[in-house]
């Protein structure tokens, strides 16, 4: 996998086979640096979500990005031959199905797929009413607002110990990998602190961009054992969680819609938080029906206001 960049009087190939996250922009700290005044300092990201699947995310760039002539407003999966435009720089994404198949069959010395079973906590944050928002906004404004949200959300979760984050549609998934089978409550509360910070960020978007109303989010958090597989090179592995634990986090977020509440915590997550009897009043225990599950599961739901109040009691 690589990008072919058309620059004056020559072309350049940028390798995408090592690692799982490449930033594009004018700033010297990017993976791929361009001398293009129409490009933002931190313009966009190409991220490998799973083996063979690459996504392009605009990071709220000033002049925007396009794929095959269409403005990028949400993360889009790249296909072989897709034409990318960042600022005034044109690139073509190349991905050989033959090479991918061969690579999966015979892992090279540089890229080995390793799996380990780990205890992880998955946070899924989804933008509410995103489809109506896309109908009300000019594409350029939408791209800048959502790109800024993705960029700043990634900064927040990484600052608070996240071991990996992904952008999926209009949602962000962040994963915390625990080193023991009994994580301390303080470690678990960092996930909640990240969520509160994301909610604060989201609430300011309408002040930065001409949005019709403040943007709202919902969230699901789930903790459990999961297979972790690396899809990058040995010196820079990109670990991706697999299995039911991840799916449950997405289902918990969906369960909050229509509930009148904002956040749903799986029962294991709640247990590891070590919530005292006095603090139980900030959460509401419900049996929720999750898509794909035969029986309802216990979850703890709350509002963002109550979540912030609970964290203050911990302080």
Describe the structure.
Helices cover 29% and strands 34% of the residues. Strands 12, 13, 14, 15, 16, 17, 18 and 19 form an eight-stranded mixed β-sheet that branches. A six-stranded antiparallel β-sheet has the order 2-1-11-10-7-8. It has 315 residues and is α+β, with helices and mostly antiparallel strands. The longest helix has 21 residues, at 139-159. Mean pLDDT is 85; it is low at 97-114 and 232-238. The chain has helices at 97-105, 130-136, 139-159, 185-202, 205-208, 244-256, 267-273, 304-314; strands spanning 2-7, 10-15, 21-25, 32-33, 44-50, 53-58, 65-67, 70-71, 76-77, 83-86, 89-94, 115-127, 164-168, 171-177, 217-230, 239-242, 263-266, 284-288, 297-302. The protein starts with a strand and ends with a helix.
């Amino acid at each position: 996998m690589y990008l072919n960049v058309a620059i004056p009087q020559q072309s350049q190939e940028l390798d995408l086979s090592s690692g799982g996250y490449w930033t594009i922009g004018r700033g010297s700290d990017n993976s791929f640096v361009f001398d293009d005044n129409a490009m933002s300092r931190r313009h966009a990201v190409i991220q490998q979500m799973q083996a063979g699947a690459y996504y392009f995310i605009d990071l709220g760039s000033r002049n925007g990005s396009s794929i095959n002539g269409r403005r990028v407003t949400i993360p889009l999966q790249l296909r072989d031959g897709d034409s990318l435009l960042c600022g005034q720089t044109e690139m073509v994404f190349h991905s050989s199905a033959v090479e991918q198949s061969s690579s999966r069959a015979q892992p090279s010395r540089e890229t080995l797929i390793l799996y380990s079973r780990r205890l992880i906590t998955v946070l899924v944050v989804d933008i509410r009413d995103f489809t109506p928002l896309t109908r009300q906004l000019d594409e350029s404004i939408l791209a800048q607002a959502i790109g800024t949200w993705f960029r700043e959300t990634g900064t927040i979760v990484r600052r608070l110990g996240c071991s990996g984050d992904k952008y999926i549609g209009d949602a962000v998934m962040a994963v915390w990998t625990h080193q023991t089978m009994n994580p301390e409550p303080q470690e678990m509360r960092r996930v909640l602190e990240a969520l509160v910070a994301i909610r604060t960020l989201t609430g300011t978007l309408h002040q930065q961009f001409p949005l019709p109303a403040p943007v709202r989010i919902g969230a699901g958090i789930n903790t459990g054992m999961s297979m972790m597989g690396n899809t990058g090179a040995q010196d820079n592995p990109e670990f991706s969680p697999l299995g039911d634990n991840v799916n449950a986090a997405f289902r918990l977020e969906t369960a909050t819609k229509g509930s009148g509440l904002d956040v749903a915590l799986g029962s294991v997550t709640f247990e590891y938080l070590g919530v005292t009897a006095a603090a139980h009043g900030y959460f509401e225990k419900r049996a929720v029906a999750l898509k794909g599950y035969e029986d309802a599961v216990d979850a703890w739901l709350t509002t963002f206001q109550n979540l912030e109040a609970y964290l203050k009691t911990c302080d």
